[in-house]
Amino acid sequence: MKITPDTLRVRYLDDLQKPDIHHGRTTPKVRNVEAWKKITSIVPSERRAINPFQGDVWVWSDIHFGHNNIIKYTAPHRPFQTKEEMNEALINNYLAVVKPEDVVIWGGDIGFISESAINDILHRLPGYKVWIVGNHDLHRDGTVYKLHFDERHLCMPLDIVEPDGMEYQLHFTHYPLDSVPSNSVNVHGHIHQNLANPWNINICVEHTGCAPLNLRDVCARARAYLEAK
Question: What residues have CB less than 8 Å from 229, skipping those under 6 apart?
Answer without folding.
Answer: none
